[in-house]
Specification:
There is one protein chain. With 616 residues, the protein is α/β, with parallel strands linked by helices. The chain is 37% helix and 15% strand. It has 24 helices and 24 strands. The strands form five sheets. Strands 9-15-14-13-12-16-19-23-24 form a nine-stranded mixed sheet, with helices on both faces. β20 and β21 form a beta hairpin. α1 packs across α2 and α9 crosses α10. The longest helix is centred in the last third of the chain and has 19 residues. The protein is globular, with a radius of gyration of 25 Å. The relative contact order is 0.10. The mean pLDDT is 95.
């Protein structure tokens, strides 16, 4: 702890002072995600890039980057709205250098978790990725002997909040107090960050230096995507497994949004008709409103958890707190809602290190008492018939994201007396214009091993795998697979001797099709199950364009599909808002005789979407 905090307004002057004090070699502990002090990190990077005698080693995760448009159609959609959708968040120079293959030898960057898909195809990032469970990442960092910790922070009445990133930083400050570590702590002020309590709150003199830039950075906004019918169906299945008075963890994205929204509908007794009309088998009997309420323990504070808290569903208190979380990065409205909360209510959300949220070690008896009837809900990319899951890497071994805390929550689920780990995934995916199954016979990469298999949920139902024989596991997985792939899966399992030769898929599970799903949920989509249950930064006409752009993307790898779109642009009835949508994309509002093929395909996609919605 410093005697005083030295204030800087010039980031380059601060960067120079830090390199001088640390003898020209900075080993930087840089928070994941939102907590990166971009102005300061960019100044450090600039200085190191300009002087090969300096050395900058960065250990971090989740480097946030705005999406880069790859095609003309993407540019037309994204570029006019980039700042509104993602914030005026500046790019990190080290990320730009890695992407452009010009990172100098005296700068090294290692990450233990990627922004999903951001570094696929980048050799440097893939080679310098460190695979570690979230709870182990702290110890991997400590082994690097960091001599500098920097973080984006808000300040209030002489105190500093670690705000969005207590995940590892809170432990590092504790270790420094205990004399186990020695590093310089430097903050960059950002008033837009919510001032959070719990382990996040520190006296200002924990930071030896503070950058108060002339212009504070805008926070990165993680844009919410529309929730699909498949994601809503998954949410409806998950909701029936969440016990009143229990414990909840969910992740970011469409499935997390769907789970939160359907839990709120359940609390209003608004789902009876939806469940009664389900063409798929329903498991779980937790359908009543919440009398006691839930407690949330999650490495990530997501918009869905905040919505459940604001709506009084997350209200069960543990040590006076309803939510314990390790970090957050979300859509801009969540930051605003957190800042706007009454301080007494905001204090019910405590930011903690992941050594607390993701593990039972330390105060184990107390944690076990708190984390009753825990349901940890996470996503996977693929699951095998034997129940192991692929969540973080592609078939080639290339890292898509990282294991993060997923395995930590599986460990907790098995260690807790009544805990369950729920893996969610759509039954299929579209790749290169072809539909493939996400339930497969074998996986090339394993994130969760088969001996930790627990519950798997697709839009077609719930497979409870814990404690089951391999044959029963296979039968239950086939029952929630898309029916177009069930026969091939049965053949593979029989060929391997894992399924009896006379087994047939029961008729009750032979109707696992997108058509059955759409028929079930379409009547509820406008009122009960909207595209954006937690809100969106897309404007009205962009929301009209999204399904058409998705349709166009799906057709882009097939000449026949593209031809069908162009045909629709001539002969199908116009979309009610077609002219506005085309103008938003920079095309002529009305159809032109010499219109480009791309414009015709988009116009056709709009018309097909309108036709399908009308028919539904």
């Amino acid at each position: 702890m410093a005697d005083r905090t030295y204030i800087y307004t010039d980031p380059d002057a601060l960067a120079g002072a830090l390199f001088k004090r640390l003898d020209g070699h900075i080993r930087l502990a840089l928070p994941l995600g939102l907590g990166k002090p971009v102005t300061l990190v960019n100044a450090l990077t600039r200085l190191a890039a300009a002087d090969p005698n300096l050395k900058l080693s960065i250990f971090t995760a989740l480097t946030l980057q705005k999406p880069k448009a790859g095609s003309d159609i993407e540019k037309r959609f994204l570029e006019p709205a980039t700042d509104r959708l993602f914030g005026r968040y500046p790019s990190l120079h080290y990320a730009d250098m890695i992407a452009e293959k010009r990172l100098p030898d005296n700068i090294e960057v290692s990450e233990f978790f990627f922004q999903a898909g951001s570094w696929l195809g980048n050799s440097y990032a893939q080679r310098h990725y460190i695979s570690a469970n979230y709870t182990h990442a702290r110890d991997v960092l400590i082994a690097q002997k960091p001599n500098l910790l920097v973080q984006l922070v808000p300040r209030e009445e002489g105190k500093i909040s670690l705000s969005c990133n207590t995940d590892i930083s809170a432990d590092l400050f504790d270790f420094r107090h205990q004399g186990k570590m020695d590093f310089i702590a430097v903050g960059e002020l950002c008033d837009a960050l919510p001032f959070m309590g719990g382990a996040a709150m520190l006296p200002e003199n924990e930071f030896e230096m503070m950058l108060e830039p002339k212009e504070q950075i805008d926070l990165f906004s993680a844009v919410r995507r529309p929730v699909s019918a498949a994601q809503y169906a998954i949410g409806l299945h998950v909701t029936r497994l969440i016990a009143d008075g229990g414990t909840l963890q969910i992740g970011i994205g469409g499935i997390g949004d769907a789970v939160a929204h359907t839990l709120m509908l359940r609390d209003k007794s608004a789902l009876d008709d939806v469940w009664q009309t389900s063409p798929f088998a329903l498991s779980g009997d937790e359908t009543a409103p919440f009398k006691t309420g839930l407690y949330a323990i999650s490495e990530m504070l997501v918009g869905g958890l905040l919505a459940l808290f604001e709506n009084g569903i997350i209200r069960r208190e543990v040590d006076g707190v309803c939510i314990h979380a390790g970090f957050f990065v979300e859509a801009r409205d969540m930051y605003e809602r957190l800042r706007a909360l009454d301080p007494a209510k905001r204090a019910k959300i405590a930011m903690m290190p992941v050594s607390f949220t993701n593990a039972l070690y330390g105060q184990e008896e107390k944690k076990r008492t708190a984390r009753v009837r825990a349901r940890f809900v996470n996503s996977a990319m693929k699951v095998s018939l034997l129940g192991d899951a692929m969540s973080d890497a592609a078939e080639t071994g290339a890292v898509v994201s990282g294991i993060g805390g997923q395995f930590n929550f599986f460990e907790q689920a098995f260690a807790l007396e009544d805990g369950r780990a729920i893996l969610t995934l759509p039954a299929t995916r579209m790749s290169d214009g072809k539909t493939t199954s996400n339930i497969v016979w074998q996986l090339p990469v394993t994130s969760v091993p088969r001996h930790m298999r627990d519950i798997v949920i697709t839009e077609y139902g719930t497979a409870d795998l814990r404690g089951q024989t391999d044959e029963d596991v296979i039968k239950r997985m086939i029952a929630i697979a898309d029916s177009r792939f069930q026969n091939d899966l049965v053949k593979e399992a029989k060929k391997a001797g894992k399924l009896s030769g006379n087994y047939q898929v029961p008729e009750a599970h032979r109707n696992n099709t997108p058509q059955a799903l759409e028929k079930w949920l379409t009547p509820y989509r406008d009122e009960l199950l909207p595209d954006f249950p937690l809100g969106t930064d897309f404007n009205e006409i962009e929301r009209v364009l999204l399904p058409a752009l998705k349709r166009l993307s799906q057709a882009s790898s097939s000449k026949m599909e593209l031809a069908s779109l162009i045909w629709a642009s001539v002969f199908a009835a116009a979309h009610p808002r077609e002219e506005e949508a085309m103008e938003r994309m920079g095309y002529e509002p009305k159809a032109q005789l010499l219109e480009s093929g791309q414009a015709r395909a988009l116009r056709g996609a709009l018309r097909q979407v309108a036709k399908n919605k009308f028919q539904s």
